[in-house]
Amino acid sequence: MINRNPQLDENGILQHLLTTEGLPASILLHILDTAESFVGVTERDVKKIPLLRGKSIFNLFFEPSTRTRTTFEIAAKRLSADVINLNIAVSAQSKGETLLDTVDNLSAMNADMFVVRHSQSGAAHLIANHVRSDVHVINAGDGSHAHPTQALLDMFTIRHYKKDFRNLSVAIIGDILHSRVARSQIHALTTLGVPEVRVIAPKTLLPKMVERLGVHVYHDMSKGLKNIDVLMMLRLQNERMQGANLPSAEEYFKYYGLTSEKLSLARRNAIVMHPGPMNRGVEIDSAVADGKQSVILPQVTFGIAVRMAVMSILAGNQA
Amino acid sequence: MKIHIRNGRIIDAKQGIDAIQDIFIAKGKIVAIGRAPDDFQASRVIDADSLIVCPGLVDLSVRLREPGFEYKATLESEMNAVVAGGVTSIACPPDTDPPLDEPGLVEMLKHRAKNLNLAHVYPIGALTQGLKGERLTEMAELNDAGCVVFGQPDGLLPNLRVLIQAMRYASTFDFSVWLRPQEISLTSDGVAHDGEVATRLGLPVVPVCAETVALSSIILLAKETGVKVHICRISSAEGLAMIRAAKQQGLAITCDVTINHLHLSDMDIGFFDSNCHLMPPLRSSSDRNALRKSFADGIIDAICSDHTPVDEDAKLLPFGQSEAGATGVELLLPLTLKWGMEMQLPLLKVLAKITSSPAEILGIDAGHLSIGSAADMCIFDPDYYWKVTSSSILSQGKNTPFLGMELPGKVKYTLVNGHVVYEH
């Protein structure tokens, strides 16, 4: 039924941003370059440009989120779009309306773009296949599948600090199994030519055949962090303690939490990233999160420029 | 009604017949093959030139969705689909609402099916009351009402104590027990095979060990109790190896596979195609290849459609929330033929998997064209390719991974008890 890459049209032009998988490096780099031009805007006094004036962007969040929704909202407003926030988790769906009915109703209100977060993998694909061809969909996180804008802002951050992707060793640490962020990061890193991508986690938090995604698997931080330039930490959900994935947060922190001591095993100038929100003392120690190698707050700032870039490219407005 | 079927290529796996001959039908039975009986006056002649005449197909899993799920499909819509597929006998899983755990319900279903006067319906009785896996059903009473075998629905095996007692009780009356091996505690909310595709798509998984762990319990308990068991919907190469070993030990065990698992793998899920959301899940291509090959050595006894009409709304959801299952009874013959052609197997052997062999598993006198037997037949054109579309299939369920594909084998006539119940 759906066998073409649904993100690209027949001419290879980006129609939706659903996943970083299968996107050519040229498109990823174009997004990063466009974001670069928006960084200046976000630092100006008057932080608005009229690229999306008159466009309606619906933030469709079926799952609670503060940070991602806010950064999308700010990005859209800086491009002068009209932004409508819908917290569906507590509205239509609880009244029994189906996902596509909700989308149809909003489309009838002349939406130009949907920013979608949903607890089910594939929800953004379903919507992208359903909407009119002039409506664009941005996946803001679907189940354990993908979170492409997070991965792109991570790539932006890495390029900002490390300049070139082609000589880096990157480690992604934590709950790979349930993480949409990790999957999107892996595809983006391998597409951009990072020669060494590692995942470090206990076996209960790794999906089967993950090495097929082009990563090396480690279970031991002391081995996995050797010669690493970039550490990408993942959030550990508290509910993982209940599902027999892990015995306790304490034991996890002891073996996989990032402390200054463990960080010293990586390259001296390594940077530390985290998609937020952080669990201090579970996956990362405060000394590291607030330390001089941390780039966690710049990630958030860059996130706005990257989301502006994605929205303007999808709307066909090149900066 | 006397019917003369002229010049067809008769293929009857049970009797080892593959020859161009005429068949003569009177009073619902086959009265002669080859030469007409004396003073036979046909009231209808069917020209079967360049067509194949075989026993009516026997499908071991067809959900009619009645009682309880009439919005997905009705007995009438699905029985029309059944005969359009050349199928004349079907086994129906007990997972209706209410489940088929009471003689009255089974009688009603049989009665309603009989009134339609299309194919023969063989309800699979519930093994436990309400299919809850706690208390045994009145199997002997259910048998009197028309249940020939007993089973649990997909993936809901009772606990081992109840299962062993159910097997003992069933074997008392020589009833066979049909089970789909799936250890529920290893699947939870899983929807896809535990492999590279699920890893990429971030889908919750049903690992192969959910099948093999359950299978090992079933095999060991079958050995202990001596009951005849039929393993439904085997999906993995490892599961297949266990069945091979059990057969070599001389256990009374048979198994089937679906047309979907014979042709597709988890790769076909593509970008979350909910038509490929099936249970058991589509597994890796090496599992599929093992299933395709194992027919030659007779480890897999039958091919079924696992016909499961789903309403469109239940498929228009994110993959994990969509309802599992595919329509299929009209694709049983085409997809079996396609498999046979791709594996270069003789038609006699191929058709056995959807005629004589499933009839034996179900324990019914069907699936052959012996003189004196009921004239249940399928007459089809093996060289006719047709496209699967929502209008070319009669089932109310239009959901199948094969939508848009061209498949070989078009049923021209279906006969049940000597009546033409479908013609194209």
Topology, element by element:
The complex is a heterodimer of chains A (319) and B (424).
Chain A: H1 25-43, E1 56-61, H2 67-78, E2 82-87, H3 99-107, E3 113-118, H4 123-130, E4 136-142, H5 148-162, E5 169-173, H6 180-191, E6 196-200, E7 216-218, H7 221-224, E8 230-233, H8 249-256, H9 260-263, E9 271-273, H10 286-289, H11 296-314
Parallel strand pairs in A: 1-2, 1-3, 3-4, 5-6, 5-8, 6-7, 8-9
Helix pairs in contact in A: 1-5, 1-11, 2-11, 5-6, 5-11
Chain B: E1 2-12, E2 17-26, E3 29-33, E4 44-47, E5 52-55, E6 57-59, H1 75-84, E7 87-92, H2 103-116, E8 120-126, H3 139-145, E9 149-151, H4 160-172, E10 176-179, E11 192-193, H5 196-201, E12 205-206, H6 208-225, E13 229-231, H7 237-248, E14 253-258, H8 259-263, H9 285-294, E15 302-304, H10 312-315, H11 332-342, H12 347-352, H13 356-362, E16 377-387, E17 406-416, E18 419-423
Parallel strand pairs in B: 1-4, 1-5, 6-7, 7-8, 8-9, 9-10, 10-13, 11-12, 13-14, 14-15
Antiparallel strand pairs in B: 1-2, 2-3, 5-16, 16-17, 17-18
Helix pairs in contact in B: 2-3, 4-6, 6-7
What does this structure look like?
The complex is a heterodimer of chains A (319) and B (424). By secondary structure, chain A is an alpha/beta fold. Helix content of chain A is 36%, strand content 14%. Chain A has a five-stranded parallel beta sheet with strand order 7-6-5-8-9. In chain A, helix 1 crosses helix 11 (296-314), helix 2 (67-78) crosses helix 11 and helix 5 (148-162) crosses helix 11 (296-314). The longest helix of chain A has 19 residues, at 25-43. Chain B is α/β, with parallel strands linked by helices and 424 residues long. Helix content of chain B is 29%, strand content 24%. Chain B contains 13 helices and 18 strands. Chain B has helices at residues 75-84, 103-116, 139-145, 160-172, 196-201, 208-225, 237-248, 259-263, 285-294, 312-315, 332-342, 347-352, 356-362; strands at 2-12, 17-26, 29-33, 44-47, 52-55, 57-59, 87-92, 120-126, 149-151, 176-179, 192-193, 205-206, 229-231, 253-258, 302-304, 377-387, 406-416, 419-423. In chain B, the strands form three sheets. In chain B, strands 1, 2, 3, 4, 5, 16, 17 and 18 form an eight-stranded mixed beta sheet that branches. The radius of gyration of chain B is 21 Å and the shape is globular. The interface between A and B is medium-sized, with 30 and 25 residues.
